[in-house]
Amino acid sequence: MSHETAPLDAEQLGAYFALMEVSTLLQHAVDEHLRADGDLSYVQFQILARLTDAPDGKLRMTDLADGVVYSRSGLTYQAGLLEKRALITRTPAPDDERSVIVTVTDTGRGLVAQVLPGHIDVVRRLLFDSLHKRDLATLGSVLGRVREHMRAAPPRSAKPRAARPRTA
Amino acid sequence: MSHETAPLDAEQLGAYFALMEVSTLLQHAVDEHLRADGDLSYVQFQILARLTDAPDGKLRMTDLADGVVYSRSGLTYQAGLLEKRALITRTPAPDDERSVIVTVTDTGRGLVAQVLPGHIDVVRRLLFDSLHKRDLATLGSVLGRVREHMRAAPPRSAKPRAARPRTA
DNA sequence: CGAATATGCTTCGAACTTGAAGCATGCCAC
DNA sequence: GTGGCATGCTTCAAGTTCGAAGCATATTCG
Questions:
Q1: Burial tier of A41 (Cβ tally within 10 Å: 0-12, 13-18, 19+)
Q2: Residue B85: is it exposed, middle or buried by C-beta count within 10 angstroms (0-12/13-18/19+)?
Q3: Which of A64, B38, B133, B141 is most buried, by CB atoms within 10 Å?
Q4: pLDDT at B153
Q5: How far apart (Å, rounded) are the C-alpha atoms in residues B59 and B52?
Q6: Backbone angles phi, psi at B94, to 5 degrees
Q7: Alpha carbon of B95: minimum distance to chain A alpha carbons (Å)
Q8: Torsion angle, CA of A149/A150/A152/A153, rounded to 10 degrees?
C-alpha cells in the first residue's frame, strides 16, 4: 500500500504513452494490410493464426477467446463470419456437449499462409527496423515479464458495484 | 530490399506478440476503471487528457484526432457525447470558418482530475510493478525510438486499389 | 437421485466505429 | 475575381463490439 496514489514520474508516463501509441499504430497498419491482402480483420487473423498453431488446428471457443483477449459474444460473431467463408468449422465437442470445437480448414490455413509474409513485413518495417539486436532482446524479455505479471493479476470483473445503466 | 519476405525469428515474434497482448490487456483494464470511476471510455479520457495538456485547453478537431489516432467521424461522435455532458465545448475557429475548436470545460478538467489517480494506479500495478528501474528506462527509450520511426513512415492510406465492397 | 450451482455458448439490444458521401469554407492559378 | 482543387467537419449506412440475459449441458452435494 505504499504507493496507492503517488503519481507516475515522467519516465513512466512516457513509457506508458509510447507503448499505447506504438501498439495502436502498429495494429492499424497491420489491419490495413490484412484487409487488402486477404480481406481479414486483425481479430480474424489472430483467430486463424492461433488455430493454425494449435495441435490439430482445433480449439474450444473459450480458449480461443482467452487467447485473443476478446469477448465471448464477439468471438461467436466472428466465428460465424469465418465459418461462412469456410475458413473454419464449428463442431460440438464429443466429451462435453456444451463446448464447441473450432477447427481451421485447409482453406483457412491457405489464407493464413497467403497473408503471413505481408503481415510479417509490415511488422518488421514498423517495429523492428528501428531496433538493434540488443534492444530487441530487452524489449522481448521486459514485455514478456510484464505479460506474465498481467496474466497473474485478476482484474477481471470483480466489480460488486450496483449495475449502473452505463450512460456513456 | 534485402529482407522483403524473410520470416521473423522467434525472438522478434515473441516481442511482437508480447507487445500486442500487453497493450490489449492494459487497455481493457484501464477502460474498465475509467468507466467505473467517471463513466468515461478510454477514448473519451484520451481526448480530455490531451485537451487538458494543450495550451488554453484548446485544440482543433483534426489535431485532436491525429493525437489520439482516431477517425474524424468517430471524434465528431465522441465530441457530441462529451459536449452533452458539458465536459467540452465546440466553437468555430475565428481565423478559419471551417475549423472547430474544442475546449475542455472546468467540469471536464475536474473529471480528469477525479479519475486520474485511479487510472495511474491501474497502470502502475499492471505495467510498472513488475519492472525494475533499469527495465523501465530501456522500455521507454526503445519504445520512444520505435514511435519516432513509425510516425516517420507514412503507411497512411496510399491505397490506389479499386474500391472493394469491404466484405468482411 | 435431484435440486442447486457452475460452465459454455449464443442471442439480443444498445453503443461505438468507420469510410464514403455531403457541405461549407479556404486557397490558388489563371 | 472566379473556377477548380484542397481542407475541415458532419452525416450516413453498414459493420463490429460488448454485457446482460437466455439456454443447455455438467457437476456438486444433500
A1: middle
A2: middle
A3: A64
A4: 67
A5: 10
A6: -65, -35
A7: 31
A8: 120
H or E element that contains A137: helix A133-152
> Measured between alpha carbons, how far is A12 from B133 in angstroms, rounded to an integer?
10
The C-alpha cell at A4 is 496507492
Separation between Cα atoms, residue B34 and residue B115, nearest integer Å: 7
Across the range A141-168, mean pLDDT stands at 61
Q: Do A11 and B136 touch (CB under 8 A)?
A: yes
Query: How many Å apart are B76 CA and C16 C1'?
Result: 12
A156: which 3 cell numbers? 477481471
Domain boundaries, chain A: 13-149
Q: What is the DSSP string of A83-126?
A: HHTTSEEEEE-SS-TT-EEEEE-HHHHHHHHHHHHHHHHHHIII
Chain B residues touching residue A25 (CB < 8 angstroms): 69, 147, 150-151
For B2-13, the pLDDT digits (tens) are 445 567 778 889
Place of cell 497482448: B21
Fold entry, domain A13-149: Arc Repressor Mutant, subunit A (1.10.10)
Show the cell assigned to B134.
Answer: 533499469
Which segments of chain B have a pLDDT < 70? 1-6, 153-168
**pLDDT for the residue A167:** 33
Place of cell 468515461: B40
DSSP A45: H
